[in-house]
Amino acid sequence: MKFPNKAYLEQLRKQYPKGTKLQLISMRNEKYPILPGTVGEVTHIDDIGNIHVRWQNGSSLAIIPEVDSFRVAGAEN
Fold first, then answer.
1. For the chain, where are the E strands, in sequence order?
2. Is residue 51 within 8 Å of residue 45, measured between CB atoms?
3. How far apart are CA 41 and CA 4, in angstroms?
4. pTM of the model
5. Domain range list for the chain
6. β 51-55/21-26 pair status
7. Which residues of 39-75 are buried (b: 16+ CB within 10 A; e: fewer)?
């Protein structure tokens, strides 16, 4: 496993600070993925760059930015 550099982690933490609402588009490589459209709140970003989220369905599964698709809730694409 390759750890991201500090600049990448700082950028992620600035872009998705604690409390940011995210909406999942798709989650891959997970036995029990969160359903598309589910909204959650960022709790923290760990040292390997996973975005930890408290989902509205009660799950606390993390998002992997390079693998999963998501957007800031309410943001237009």
1. 21-26, 39-45, 51-55, 69-72
2. yes
3. 23
4. 0.89
5. 6-72
6. unpaired
7. bbebeebeeebbbbbebeeeeebbbbbeebebeeeee
Whose structure tokens read 């800031």? 72
Contacts of 21 (CB under 8 A, 6+ apart): 39, 40, 41, 42, 72, 73, 74
pLDDT of res. 76: 58
Strand 69-72 relative to strand 21-26, pairing:
antiparallel
Low-confidence ranges of the chain (pLDDT < 70): 1, 29, 75-77
pLDDT digits (tens, 9 = 90+) for 41-61: 999 999 999 999 999 999 999
Q: Quick one: fold of 6-72?
A: SH3 type barrels. (2.30.30)
Asked whether the beta carbons of 38 and 56 are under 8 A apart, the reply is yes
